[in-house]
Amino acid sequence: DTGVSQDPRHKITKRGQNVTFRCDPISEHNRLYWYRQTLGQGPEFLTYFQNEAQLEKSRLLSDRFSAERPKGSFSTLEIQRTEQGDSAMYLCASSLSTGGMRTQYFGPGTRLLVL
Amino acid sequence: AQKVTQAQTEISVVEKEDVTLDCVYETRDTTYYLFWYKQPPSGELVFLIRRNSFDEQNEISGRYSWNFQKSTSSFNFTITASQVVDSAVYFCALAPSTGGFKTIFGAGTRLFVKA
Q1: B38, B48 in Cβ contact below 8 A?
Q2: What are the chain B neighbours of A109 within 8 Å (beta carbons)?
Q3: Which pLDDT belongs to residue B12?
């Protein structure tokens, strides 16, 4: 059983460029979450999917951010017109939704630096 | 409001000392889950424990133990006989059972264990 994987692990981009991150959840998990973590802080919820449906979005997720999970398996998070304030670690997590199970298992994260 | 407070920003101990990491939470939900995660320097969040609000039994797992007290809204974590490998940032987190599945994290406590 492989864990949650994320790609790329690191991304450096210039302000104004678009970036896309990918997350592959644990195979039997139907829920997938995105979080953002800045230095010295805990992760902050961005959005989550149950299967392919995006069920909740945080106010942190501005119009420049979009997330998809087209076939209910992997997910992508795209940031358009990046700003320096977008520099952070982007974490993906997955979980089951049955039996009250809400333990989220996290991937290694994608560290984004916007210059 | 849902909130998790980890008042200790950093703790430094010498190997073999016991250390307790404090966590206080706020929620109006009667049903919720509490978690502890470990984030080593590699960055990946590692799940340690989950408790639901109806189960106030304390738990011990090897050198780790957790004390859940609903009356004081606290969920403290103790490491007995600390080791250098315990050095990491530890996050306490709250997940309400209703109204979505986002997990609210505290700001984390950075633990340094010196040899």
Answers
A1: yes
A2: 43-44
A3: 97
